[in-house]
Amino acid sequence: MQLPFSLEIPISKLASVFRNTSATYKFYWFWGILESIEEGKSTINKKEIFARMLSLSWYTVNYFHISFGKQDLIQQAIFNVKDLENLSIDDKQSVILNRLIKSKNPETIKLLLHFDNNVPHKFLSPWLGSGSRAKVYEQSLDNNINAPYQLHKEHIVINNKWFNYFKNNLGILKSFSFWNLALFLQSRNPNVPDIPNKIHRPIIRGSLNKHKQKFWDIVLNELGYINCIYTNEKLVVGDYIIEHFLPHQFVAHDLMWNLIPADSQFNSKKSDKLPPFEKYFDDFYYLQKEGFEIIKKISPKNKFLQDYLTIFPEMSFDKSKFVEHIQPMLTIAHNNGFQYLKT
Fold first, then answer.
1. Cα-based torsion angle of the residue sequence 179, 180, 182, 184 in order, rounded to the nearest 10 degrees
2. Fewest 10 Å CB contacts: which of 123, 125, 137, 172?
3. Taking CA 304 as the corner, what is the angle to CA 303 and CA 309, rounded to the nearest 5 degrees?
4. Is the separation of the CB atoms in 166 and 37 below 8 Å?
5. Every domain of the chain and the residues it spans
6. Model-level pTM?
7. How confident is the chain (343 residues) per 10-residue block, as mean pLDDT?
């Protein structure tokens, strides 16, 4: 990305800050600083920034199960503080942040302050080099070097020129952090779909009724009923729920090729679990194929038919293509921490 130009500060050094990174720390550290500046703070407690690092990465780790790599300790810190502070993966970022900042639990504080060992001074390496921690702390106090912030034991102080630059370009700089973080995570998770949509807290999704009314209701009206592939219960119009075969937490979309009618009671049990391929795929495939062919015949202009183009570009169902698409995704999801449904 092209960062906004400035005559007063060395933008080229900021542009290089994410080069040669082996963990997510710098991305979330800078993002945390920007959020604090957005609140008008120029003197920022380190513990607050560390708390922001965890709150910003909370959903990427807990909800979407994205791997940060073996060297990255943010994931384990999140798992630990979730239990220590009795937090939920569905808590809002503001709730998580507030709880971590105010926590008096010595174990939580220890986990947060662990990031003080390297993150604050190594972020400044484009300006101050890769010297010892003590040396970088001392150099950061020299205003002639024009580093973004001064390092102190418990806080940082943003340089006035940098503060103005950050404040005036918050949107672009957040996008700069987001984009570089997305590239980093994609390199660590090359087979996981839609990484950019797994960095922020998932948007509260609207009801899937539009799919039900415009797609599966048409199928059910044509057939009279279908059997749930999980429970074999009869499903009729008005008495079923739309469910994701591959969990939404993994695919991060509501495309029709992954949606089927299901028994509402079983859907709550399934949650984000993976359906075992050998047990459920054939029934899933034949239900999808039958639904697709009915809609194609009765409602050929139905917009949800377009959802199948990524798998079937010629708009003709092929079981082998569906297997090639679904089976590897189940394996990848499981490797990323999603568990199979116990049957």
1. 170
2. 172
3. 100
4. yes
5. 11-198, 209-335
6. 0.81
7. 88 93 96 98 98 97 90 94 94 95 97 97 95 96 94 97 97 96 93 89 64 84 95 93 91 91 85 93 97 94 91 91 94 90 82
